Batch of 2 targets.
Target 1
Amino acid sequence: MSSAHSTSTSDSDATTAVPTPVPRRPRSTARDLAQIAVFAALIAALGLPGALSIGGAAVPITFQTLGVMLAGAILGARKGVLAVLLLIVLVAAGLPLLSGGRGGLSVFVGPSVGYLLGWLLGAAVIGWATARLLPRYPIAPALGWTALGGIVAIYLVGIPVFSVVTGTPIGAAALASTVFLPGDVFKVVVTVLVAKGVHRAWPGLIEPRSWPWARRSVAAESTGTA
Amino acid sequence: MIGVFHPGRSLLHRAPALLKLGLLAAFVTAVALQGSLMALAVASVLVMVLFLIAWLPLRLVWQQVVPILWLLAFAVPVQVVFGGWEAAAMMAVRLVLAVALAALYTLTTPVSATLDAMQALLRPFRRWIDADRVGLTLALTIRCVPLLAEIVREVLEARKARGAEGSIAALAVPVIVRALQTAEHLGDALTARGFDD
Amino acid sequence: MTEIVFDRVSHDFGPDRVVDDVSLVLAEHRIGIVGANGSGKSTLARMINGLVTPSSGRVSVGGLDLARHAREVRRMVGFVFTNADNQIVMPTVREDVAFTLRRHKLDRADAAARVDAALQRFGLTELADRPAHRLSGGQKQLLALAAVLVAEPSIIVADEPTTLLDARNARLVSEHFAELPQQLVVVSHHLELLEEFDRVIVMEGGRVIADDRPGPALDVYRELIGSAR
Ligand SMILES: Nc1ncnc2c1ncn2[C@@H]1O[C@H](COP(=O)(O)OP(=O)(O)OP(=O)(O)O)[C@@H](O)[C@H]1O
Ligand SMILES: [Mg+2]
């Protein structure tokens, strides 16, 4: 299907006669930019009426957080966060891109703005961890990290903001947010299953990195042998 | 995309977006810090007058304010228990005022005007942020929304046609793969059309 | 006409060789490329503006080597893709055409005049402020063409520009192509379009197996797809 290494959209990775390694261009390539825009649009599309609904009459679940988690897990931290940020900016500008057709600045002075801003942190955590879980992407740790980003991080910003804006005690705000918990756990599982499949079929979306602690021990080893 | 904006010729429609943004920020801050019910009552009258000036369809205003009422239905009883009647009332009035005024901004300001205002606000940071590129990416995203909505719709229909209920993961994989393919093509088109120049 | 030169060009996607030692000098006005699915046509066409960089060999346009001067070449070469939906990058028709002129740094009035002229030429004036996604398939491909031509490229490369269109729209788009004064390189399965061309290249398995005037070249191609049946 695709191969990030063989087709080139930027001049920097062109095969030239010069054998010196070509420096990486710091700015986003056109493809990166398109991926960011497409995922921002995907998060919006998942909130459109009739896009997706499960459980029938049960608690309405918005699939936009699924889009946020996927943005981090598929594109990585930088591109994932930028995708979420793009969406937030467009919402602020007055486009009704949040589920239920919400949009405009009223979202940003309301009590649930913290959850929206929490999406940024959530995508960052998931993207950061995914780069370290790849290329193997073992399911159990992936579930843990995705839950940390997709649930803990988002609630960590969302609940205190809700509590401050509405003046309710933080415990009550936290309790209220648990209605979303089953849906969010479900979305974490979906995100991990999808990411596992997509990264196998489409390698090269996120450059694998090593955990900070792993790097430190490697460095220690190498200095030890030197 | 038209957005929440409702066209009109009122004073509020004609005021520059940056000025409106500044006033909105000042008002929301003032209301948040305000301790007396009297001051909030005055602010409420002010907001109502502004809505009259803007002369917007009631339905649109209602749509904007309804989500906050749902939240208040939860928050007010909690506040009454923990903080008493007065605190609960103040909180509710503050929130409704802030949301209503923000809605007023959005209803009277075209999306493009807000985006221009944002670009203007970015100008001092031009050493780090290329406002032109940001503007293009925002436009590209707006262009992509119908494209992605179509992809989600087609994948859902394909599933229905097969009669398979399948897991949501089995549904999401084709959506993501098609989204990535779309990004690949758009990236090529951007390059071919000189985006990097 | 500008010379498009492929000099011993090969390209691999992973283990697969999809373009195999192709050498060509294209200087005719209208050049067609045909071949079975997967024969490497798109890959070859995309090399002309550097969307694909060959694994080995060189491609140059008007003496400019793509490996070093992709940007300059892209200013001369307009590219029309199969699926116009993926080529339209801006929300409205007018904005999308204007996007191409961004790199030309024209003043506002000048740019607007050129955009209007391009829209007019393809009958899109009425639709200028519509969201691009509301256009019909044929209108979208005309928009793609308008957006490419507004920059006045000297070469136009098109990869199956009519494949996704119904017969009527395909004819409409083909007619517009036939009227273009620019040098054309068109990948197409619509053989009628290529019959009027100056030269047709037939590809198979990444190689050029025929390179001739349309008559004899298309005969080779018909025989090829006939024998496959
Ligand atoms: N980005 C890519 N990554 C991996 N393989 C690719 C890629 N693009 C094309 N290929 C493969 O290269 C071969 C040639 O593809 P190409 O698109 O050039 O063929 P084509 O002649 O244009 O075919 P079609 O008539 O179907 O458009 C095919 O086998 C295809 O699967
Ligand atoms: Mg092709």
Target 2
Amino acid sequence: MGEIKLMKGNEALAEAMIRAGCDAYFGYPITPQSEVLEYLSKDATQRTGMVVLQAESEVAAINMIYGAAGCGRRVMTTSSSPGISLMQEGLSYIASAELPCVLANVVRGGPGLGTIQPSQADYFQSVKGGGHGDYRLIVLAPSSVQEMVDFVRLSFDLAEKYRNPVMILTDGAIGQMMEKVELFDQMPRKTEFPDWATTGKPKDKERRYITSLHIQPEKMEEINKHLQAKYKQIEKDEVRYEAFNLDDAEYVLTGYGLGARICRKAMDILREKGYKVGLVRPITLFPFPKKVYEEVANRVKGILDVEMNAGQMVEDVKLSVCGKTRVEYYGRMGGMIPSPEEIVENFEKLFIKGEA
Amino acid sequence: MSNNIETAKFRPEICVDENLVYRKPSTLLPEPFHYCPGCGHSTVHKIFMEVVEEMGIENDIIGVAPVGCSVFAYHYMGVDMQQAAHGRACAVATGIKRVQPDKYVFSYQGDGDLAAIGTGETIHAANRGENILVIFINNGIYGMTSGQMAPTTLEGMVSTTSPHGRDVKTQGYPLKMSELIAPLPGVAYVTRQSVHKPANVRKAKKALRQALEYQKQGLGFCLVEIVSNCPSNWRMTPAQANQYIDEKMLAFYKLGDIKVPEVK
Amino acid sequence: MAKALGEIIIDIEKCKGCALCIDACPEEVLSLTNKINKKGYQYIVTVNSNCTGCANCAIICPDAVITVYRKIEKSA
Ligand SMILES: Cc1ncc(C[n+]2csc(CCOP(=O)(O)OP(=O)(O)O)c2C)c(N)n1
Ligand code: SF4
Ligand code: SF4
Ligand code: SF4
Ligand SMILES: [Mg+2]
């Protein structure tokens, strides 16, 4: 058993970063994730020697990440929606140059400066690319403080395994909530770095360079094909999701992160009311757990997708079920959180009363 | 290498190792420069690689290439390099240096890259006293994108976006980045050099070496500005362009050290 | 009096004919030919044997085309 502590989501994420042997963190303050930089500023450097630097902007932060990741180091940044928007050019470069790194987006309501209240409105930005060009992030959606911890380590592993940026897509509520967590033990920082890393030209080998520039379209297409093949592999091997009560389910609720937590309560209420309702919670948003939806689509009467946005993941659910079952959406926007009762009410309105 | 003497008598007996005065540095890769004939980018690449060779640090230095004509610097400089997004070279260099403080780190940037889109990253890296060398190629124009006005374009200078000459009333004044950065306490060394005459090339090379020596001593941010040419977009021959540097550019961008570290 | 005898080797395929070395040479050793190299540039040649090996041409040459040798000949 690891150390058990009562921790705030953002602080737990920061603690996990230190324990995962992270070499460098570059970030810029923005609510609701500033606790990460504040927590690291206390004693992370004293504890492991990791670099903690407050950058002058998110643009600078993501490019510092590029530089340090290009040296083969474990690097991470965090921000919230407007800051993540500023990072998109850098992320596109990182994805193209295939640099491993981890980001967390503690999402707040938008668009624009929006609100500091929790939201899931950055789903499209996270899973469909976000910046320019055909690229993907691996996207993990924690729904508890424990997962804020566990997914940091998992993200570093996936980033390094696939040489790809990994996004932890969370929200202001999970970032701010206090929960009991079990922490993993301190891992050593890396002392060996991959061959491609720019650590100074090796004596008897050619110099290395990190770039995303390939002027010849033939070459650039080759790079694209390579990236797409990698994403296919990720879709094959890295799908993660959680499912409840699917065995006898006639209906399925689905949501991720905080939305999934609320759906679980709604499911319990609905079950008490006698409806056979299951739940699918995608953990990886890219790769999206298409198969589980495809499978339940053949035997349920409908799926209710619940999100804290105007309905974004619902498009992926619809693509997965391919019209084989009815898919409805219910959600709140702009920092509002749907209650379990609202979900129950809308479930009944959409599926039960509509059915009658 | 080919001997090409056509009208003069070639004296091979002189061409022996012990008489060697100048050869291309071994740190420069075989790939020929893609730069236009007479372009100062080539000259600066060459002398910087001479410095790296002379200091014997090719295994201990990591460079950052910008977006601009010198985007492919990594095809020529035989050291580990990263290619940065437009303007972000100082942030990328910060990332590299922070995780490898024992290595030499440099960025190589044009005036659009460093003094327009990347002004923020440059000033903040300088202000943090990042222990890096920034090589700043000021050719008063956006070379790569075919000759638009840069922040450094001289008053009255013609570019594709100031076809009637830069009008400072509406288009702003030419920006002296070196003078702007020098007063910051994190900055160790700022100098302005040029490569338009052999004597200037020699001085510019010395300045680059000096900056790396300061980096070794951990003194902080060093900026070596090099006033350079862009014969193609200035629409001049290389000789005319270098004359323009002598007469016009250097009248505004004065050569010499702007800040040197205090001797302890 | 010591006399400096210089000689240069020109990597003509790398020469871009920018002519900066011509102006830099104090001894007027260099000139462009009418021929062109594989890249399509007129290239530089020596036109006399007055070279002193001062290396100005090599130093100004952007493309690192020129290698310079210098021999000091001591005369009585
Ligand atoms: C974000 C972004 N904006 C614009 C460009 C287009 N762009 C490429 S190079 C350049 C200007 C380069 O000028 P400078 O830095 O002076 O370099 P030079 O080519 O003169 O050496 C611009 C605007 C880009 N690549 N990326
Ligand atoms: S466009 Fe100008 S700066 Fe670019 S290579 Fe040509 S001469 Fe040099
Ligand atoms: S070494 Fe000096 S003298 Fe000889 S060709 Fe070059 S510039 Fe002229
Ligand atoms: S300076 Fe170099 S490239 Fe230019 S003409 Fe002379 S040898 Fe050729
Ligand atoms: Mg320029």
